[in-house]
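[audit] Reproducing an earlier prediction to check determinism. Same input, same settings, fresh worker. If the tokens differ from the archived copy the diff job will pick it up downstream; this log only records the rerun itself.
[audit] input (89 residues):
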Amino acid sequence: MKPFSNNRELYEYLLFLSAELQKRKFEELSEAVAFASRQAASNISTEFLGESRIALRRVLKEEDGILTVQERADLSDVLKQLDEALDRR
């Protein structure tokens, strides 16, 4: 996955993932990701990135094969980006 250039791209990814999880009847995980996406409205970028990382780690841990191989790879890439971004703060 191409690295995000800003928080807006992360926000859009979270919305996409939340919708996909909802379609696949993983409502609890969908809501966790949606909650993280709503943190984008806060003026604290670190909070948004941290909540996103927590939610995405949970998805990776609990998705139980609902994601495709490519979706899991993309999710891992996003988590790596979040780790790097938060380590720089």
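[audit] rerun output stored. Observation attached for the diff report: The chain has one domain: 7-87.
[audit] end
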